[in-house]
Design goal:
Layout: E1 5-15, E2 18-28, E3 35-39, E4 43-46, H1 49-60, H2 68-79, H3 85-95, E5 99-105, E6 140-145, E7 157-158, E8 163-168, H4 191-203, E9 208-212, H5 225-233, E10 240-244, E11 246-250, E12 253-259, E13 265-269, H6 270-279, E14 286-290, H7 313-318, E15 323-327, H8 333-350, H9 353-363, E16 373-377, E17 385-386, E18 389-392, H10 401-409, E19 413-417, H11 423-426, H12 429-439, H13 452-463, H14 465-484, H15 490-493, H16 497-508, H17 515-521, E20 526-529, H18 535-542, E21 548-551, E22 586-589, H19 596-599, H20 607-619, H21 626-633, E23 636-642, H22 647-657, E24 668-673, H23 684-696, E25 703-708, H24 711-726, H25 736-741
Parallel strand pairs: 1-5, 5-6, 6-16, 7-17, 8-9, 8-10, 10-14, 14-15, 19-20, 19-23, 20-22, 21-22, 23-24, 24-25
Antiparallel strand pairs: 1-2, 2-3, 2-4, 11-12, 12-13, 15-16, 18-25
Length: 750
């Protein structure tokens, strides 16, 4: 879609009824190579909250639109009455074909979520255009943006792998409660109808659906809090959580009507559901709070909760969920039947939640309740899925896959293994960082809690080096056993960490596309890993290759231990210098090993570790074996499992750039990079451009490319292309005649 500029309107409370409003506009320069960032000075706005709340109540109960326009106009007059707001909005809309307008209500002004911001008129609409609102403009992507001290990064799933959990709570005794004070009894939910509506929108878009509901839909159980929590915790969780239940505002907090195991009502505080979502390791990227419809079959049947379920939306977003879609009034079934399919169809097409809401609003723009859908979001660019793609350097039309395959086949390619290859086993480095930060009362800003070297440096000052490294090993062990203990025999579960990792790794390699297995089958002569495990060595052994494992003793104290003679190398044509046989590659651990007693090389963890590493590795280059240095200077480079913004990758780039007599310009180089993650307070589109430029400036030649996707995505493509070209992987020991018949001609070794 067209580039979207960002306009963030931030509101914070100054005092009773008074608020501070400031605006920030971000977009591309006219040359499209830099980003503009314009901010306004804060100005004071006064809101009569009691009057607004009365209007809100009247509007939320009114389906014909009377009261809604009045509320929106009054709110707009108060908001745009200052010096800056209307002017900046006019300027942003006039200069940008698409504008992402984020209403950023700070945590000290959460009461403003009670107001119907989606009804505010568009002050830039031409005179005489009636009913135009900011939320309904097709040029504006409107959302309520939230911030929190508890933000976590958002990991996205591939478009074709999206999953949804639909939970519909229909307690058998729900009529024991009234709909509001002195109101009629709460009505039973038409489960079949609401489930059909949810599934039609989701499954039509290719999204796999699991269901928690009573009766014939109870294959996975009914919609109890325990069942919801258990399903959301399973595996890598769900991308979308779609909840249908009654909700009311009681005694100052939202209440939800879920079910007990026997089907009767379990009335819980909304905060309990929020707490369960907060504790999830893999949170849904999108939560849909679907209003309970009256059981009438009339097309104008409407929600019975008067939009009170929407009050849970900001709380769920504050728990770290990327986006929450709710209904803030008595929305009609007719509107929902059009809105939800249009929303999911657009979401599947472009992956942008706010764009999908805008498209769905356009589909119901002539309905009197079109303003009722409300989007709470903490995403910077609105994405909830990604599609892998290869981005080449300037001057290249497309990536030369054949050239990369030639380099691999001829043993002119060195592969680097990063921490991303271990995430499925021990979790991401940022998870370890957050755990330590929470456990040790990390005193620095919340956005730094994901930086493992930074947090590890702090923990090191608290507990010392030995305890820090013991805690890392304990985390790895606990994490693996949490997910795989049932698959391991008792003697392995009770063994040491590396034995546990090896046993689980062997099970994972039953999958033919397990990353270590794919890499081990390919004829790389040198593997350089920044990971501290034996998984690659085990995969090489299973493939019939007799690898040699070496560990760089980067810490000065570790060099005091005796070790075997240094690896030497000789030149064989254009191939990498090595005295290793073709089927006996080198596995070189660049950043230490978990078994420090055997290898005498501690794992790099803290900021000081990285600084010491750089100083030692660049001051005394001979400490790294010649065969490794020649691989760094004279081969194609393939980076798997790194984030280019991480310390480990950046230090690696400096080591490569420091190699003398580099001939890297003759080869193809690829960095497999998961797209910049949401939740770090950055504009991901611009972060991506920066990372591309960073890789381009890394002094490693002109034939560079970044693969935006996961390591598994890339290795699946590489596997397909290798088999398509060569028919099969090599068998070891190598049959050179067989390879020659397939036009794969590796250099023979002495």
């Amino acid at each position: 879609m067209t580039d979207v500029a960002n306009l963030e309107v931030e509101i914070s409370r100054r005092g009773p009824g008074t608020y501070s409003v400031s605006m920030r506009q971000q977009g591309q320069s006219k040359r499209r190579d830099t980003q503009t960032d314009i901010r306004t000075e804060p100005e004071e706005v006064v809101f009569d909250l009691e009057a607004f709340r009365k209007d809100t109540t009247d509007a939320a109960l009114d389906l014909d639109g009377s009261g809604v326009a009045r509320h929106g106009q009054t709110l707009g007059d108060a908001f745009f009455g200052g010096e800056h707001a209307a002017r900046v909005l006019h300027q942003a809309i006039a200069t940008n074909p698409r504008l992402r307008l984020r209403l950023h209500i700070q945590s000290n002004a959460m009461e403003l979520h009670d107001l119907l911001w989606e009804t505010v008129p568009d002050p830039t609409a031409p005179t005489g255009v009636a009913g135009a609102t900011l939320a309904m403009s097709e040029q504006i992507l409107f959302s309520r943006y939230l911030s929190s001290d508890k933000w976590q990064v958002v990991q996205l799933r591939r478009k074709g792998d999206l999953k949804a959990l639909v939970a519909i709570a229909d307690p058998t005794d729900v009529d024991a409660w009234s709909n509001g004070v002195n109101g009629p009894p709460l009505a039973r939910i038409n489960v079949a109808r609401d489930l059909a509506l949810a599934k039609s929108g989701l499954e039509a878009c290719g999204i796999a659906v699991d269901v928690l509901a009573a009766g014939e839909n109870a294959a996975l159980g009914n919609a109890t809090l325990d069942n919801i929590e258990a399903r959301l915790r399973e595996g890598e969780g769900y991308d979308i959580f779609y909840l249908v239940c009654h909700g009311q505002w009681i005694e100052g907090q939202p209440k939800l009507w879920l079910e007990q195991p026997d089907g009767t009502a379990d009335v819980i505080a909304g905060g309990r559901l929020v707490h369960e979502l907060w504790e999830l390791e893999h949170k849904p990227r999108l939560v849909v709070l679907a209003s309970c419809m009256s059981a009438s079959g009339d097309a104008e049947a409407h929600a019975e909760d008067r939009g009170e379920l929407a009050a849970v939306g900001p709380l769920i977003a504050s728990a770290g969920v990327s986006a929450v879609l709710a209904m803030q009034g008595n929305v009609t079934m007719e509107t929902i039947k059009v809105f939800m399919p249009a929303f999911f169809a657009s979401l599947l097409e472009n992956g942008l939640v706010d764009q999908a809401v805008a498209s769905a609003r356009a589909a119901v723009k002539n309905r009197p309740d079109a303003w009722m859908p409300v989007l709470f979001m903490r995403l910077q660019d609105g994405s909830i899925w990604y599609e892998p793609e290869m981005v080449v350097s300037s001057g290249q039309d497309e990536f030369d896959w054949e050239g990369l395959l030639d380099d691999i086949c001829a043993q002119r390619c060195t592969v680097f293994l990063g921490p991303g290859l271990l995430e499925g086993l021990v979790g991401a480095p940022r998870m370890i960082a957050r755990r330590w930060a929470q456990k040790r009362a990390f005193p620095l800003p919340p956005h730094e809690m994901d930086d493992l070297p930074h947090v590890a440096q702090y923990v090191h000052t608290q507990v010392g080096d030995a305890a820090l490294r013991d805690d890392l090993r304990n985390w790895f062990t606990d994490r693996i056993l949490e997910h795989y203990s049932e698959d391991l025999p008792p003697e392995v579960r009770d063994g040491n960490l590396l034995d546990v990792m090896d046993a689980v790794g062997k099970q994972l390699r039953q999958d033919n596309l397990e990353p270590h297995k794919v890499l081990a089958r390919l004829p790389f002569p040198v593997y350089i890993t920044t990971n501290p495990d034996n998984l690659l060595t085990a995969a090489l052994t299973e493939s019939g290759r007799r690898s040699r494992q070496e560990v760089f003793r980067w810490h000065v104290e570790d060099r005091e231990y005796p070790q075997e003679g240094p690896l030497d190398g000789r030149q064989f044509g254009d191939a990498i210098a090595s005295n290793l046989p073709w089927d006996a590659p080198l596995v070189y651990h660049l950043y230490g090993h978990l078994d420090q007693h055997e290898h005498h090389s501690r794992v790099m963890l803290t900021e000081d570790d990285y600084f010491d590493y750089l100083i030692g590795a660049t001051a005394d280059k001979d400490t790294i074996p010649l065969v490794v240095r020649e691989a760094l200077a004279n081969s194609a480079l393939l980076f798997i499992g790194f984030q280019m913004s991480d310390w480990g990758f950046r230090v690696l780039m400096r080591i490569i750039a420091s190699q003398p007599k580099s001939r890297l310009k003759n080869y193809h180089h690829v960095a497999v990079q998961v797209r910049p993650e949401e939740g770090r307070g950055l504009d991901t589109a611009w972060a991506r451009k920066y990372l591309v430029k960073y890789f381009d400036s890394a002094n490693i030649g002109s034939q560079r490319a970044i693969y935006w996707g996961s390591s598994a995505d890339f290795l699946t493509v590489l596997d397909e292309r290798w088999v398509d070209r060569f028919g099969a992987y090599p068998t070891y020991p190598i049959n050179f005649g067989e390879l020659a018949e397939r036009n794969c001609k590796p250099t023979r070794r002495r």
